[in-house]
Amino acid sequence: MTATDDVARQTLLRRGFALEYATLAWNVLGIVVLAVAAIAARSVALAGFGLDSLIEIGASTVVIWELSGSGVDRQRRALRLIGVGFALLSVYLLVQSTWVLSVGFRPHHSLLGIAWTAITAAVMFTLAAGKARTGAALDNPVLKTEGRVTLIDGLLAAAVLVGLVLNSLAGWWWADPLAGYVLVYYAIREVKEIFFGKH
């Protein structure tokens, strides 16, 4: 590796760390905002989205740990940890969506929830794109995989947003849990790729 290559790699590593620290900071703040919004609206979807933020915090922490070292074994272990995060997310979404539909739980309207999930979706999609590009440039499967966790976080934010808006405008309380099933499929697909795919 030449000195130029080493400088370029260090620049990419700094960018990877910056993306993960930004993700961590956003999700830590999000847990507080979502807790307030969920309690005020009695919203299972918003409370669940707060739990998803915890999974994203865990995944970002794993990537920061992996970027701090090197080695194939370290990457494998990090990928497995992220895979466990995806599995937990899929189980959570499946249980939450089924429970909300079966009991017909109807949350109150939440302007705070709508605003936060709209902004979060935009932020997560931007971070996910940055992680995908940086992970590809570094040839780092852990950063690329965690970028997909961030993408799912953005998709979940968008799904919760649609559910909150449809509930507020049309009383369609069931829209959010139905969107959750789509994300279950995506999360399970990622678990299969992490544990059984080629990296």
Automatic annotation (TrEMBL):
<keyword id="KW-0472">Membrane</keyword>
<protein>
    <submittedName>
        <fullName>Divalent metal cation (Fe/Co/Zn/Cd) transporter</fullName>
    </submittedName>
</protein>
<dbReference type="Pfam" id="PF01545">
    <property type="entry name" value="Cation_efflux"/>
</dbReference>
<dbReference type="InterPro" id="IPR026765">
    <property type="entry name" value="Tmem163"/>
</dbReference>
<keyword id="KW-0967">Endosome</keyword>
<keyword id="KW-0812">Transmembrane</keyword>
<dbReference type="InterPro" id="IPR058533">
    <property type="entry name" value="Cation_efflux_TM"/>
</dbReference>
<feature type="transmembrane region" description="Helical">
    <location>
        <begin position="46"/>
        <end position="67"/>
    </location>
</feature>
<dbReference type="InterPro" id="IPR027469">
    <property type="entry name" value="Cation_efflux_TMD_sf"/>
</dbReference>
<keyword id="KW-0862">Zinc</keyword>
<feature type="transmembrane region" description="Helical">
    <location>
        <begin position="79"/>
        <end position="99"/>
    </location>
</feature>
<feature type="domain" description="Cation efflux protein transmembrane">
    <location>
        <begin position="85"/>
        <end position="189"/>
    </location>
</feature>
<keyword id="KW-1133">Transmembrane helix</keyword>
<feature type="transmembrane region" description="Helical">
    <location>
        <begin position="111"/>
        <end position="130"/>
    </location>
</feature>
<feature type="transmembrane region" description="Helical">
    <location>
        <begin position="21"/>
        <end position="40"/>
    </location>
</feature>
<keyword id="KW-0770">Synapse</keyword>
<feature type="transmembrane region" description="Helical">
    <location>
        <begin position="151"/>
        <end position="175"/>
    </location>
</feature>
<keyword id="KW-0968">Cytoplasmic vesicle</keyword>
<comment type="similarity">
    <text>Belongs to the TMEM163 family.</text>
</comment>
